[in-house]
Design brief:
The protein has eight helices and eleven strands. The protein is α/β, with parallel strands linked by helices and 226 residues long. It has two domains: 115 residues, Rossmann fold; 95 residues, Winged helix-like DNA-binding domain superfamily/Winged helix DNA-binding domain (Arc Repressor Mutant, subunit A). The strands form three sheets. Strands 2-1-3-4-5 form a five-stranded parallel sheet, sandwiched between helices. Helix 6 packs across helix 8 and helix 7 crosses helix 8. The radius of gyration is 20 Å and the shape is elongated.
């Protein structure tokens, strides 16, 4: 499995990496929250070992950001021993909580248990049509042929909603309901957003990522890369 270690204390970080490598895992080590976000922006991980008290972005905030876009398995490693702290972190979306000081064998055992029941997780990066289109949900960035394009907030929200459900045709009303909850958007506005999105992400009009089903709605038809 691929493991991201987010721990600012170098000795603990290195110890975890050594044992994870020994168990055959691929490991990336970072020492603060900003570096963790950058790592997840460019790579997909199966497990994140996360310290809570980090320089910059704290562990709790990282969990909230991760859970908006991914169900990667998060094991918190923290010196906070209060029961309320544990409950709060689990409520935010962490999968497990180990208090410091901890047994390295316990951490590795938990990772092995995750590996046993491992199923495909939602990636941090989505690519389609042989990397022609790339979407990074954590940072809301969209690339066409590796060049970043600018989408408005609502354009991105519509695109993201459609590509998350590629086999479903959505009516204008459904798109409004899920993407414009705080807006006065109406049916024909969706047509304008779809038109603008197509202009920005389609290289050829006849090979659009979004298919129109006349009288019904819209469907994302990009082919997800393996």
């Amino acid at each position: 499995m691929k493991i991201l270690i987010v721990e600012d204390y170098p000795k603990i970080n290195q110890m975890l990496a050594i044992y994870a490598h020994k168990d055959g895992h691929e490991v990336k080590q970072v020492y603060n929250g900003e570096a963790a976000l950058l790592a997840t922006k460019h790579e997909t991980f199966d497990v994140i070992l996360l310290d809570l008290m980090l320089p910059g972005i704290q562990g709790e905030e990282l969990i909230k950001l991760m859970r908006k876009v991914s169900d990667v398995y998060i094991i918190v490693l923290s010196a906070k021993i209060d029961v309320k702290d544990r409950i709060d972190v689990i409520t935010l979306g962490a999968d497990d909580y180990i208090t410091k000081p901890f047994s390295i064998e316990e951490v590795m055992a938990k990772i092995k248990n995750v590996e046993k029941r491992f199923t495909q997780k939602h990636p941090s990066i989505y690519t389609f049509n042989h990397n022609q289109l790339k979407v990074i949900p954590l940072s809301r960035e969209v690339y066409v042929n590796n060049e970043m394009i600018n989408l408005t907030q609502y354009e991105y929200d519509v695109l993201w909603y459609l590509l998350e459900h590629p086999n479903i045709i959505f009516s204008r009303e459904t798109i409004i309901e899920h993407c414009f909850t705080d807006s006065d958007a109406y049916n024909r506005v969706i047509d304008v957003f779809i038109k603008n999105i197509r202009k920005k992400i389609d290289l050829l009009p006849e090979q659009s990522f979004i298919k129109t089903h006349y009288g019904v709605g819209y469907q994302f038809v990009g082919v997800r890369d393996e």
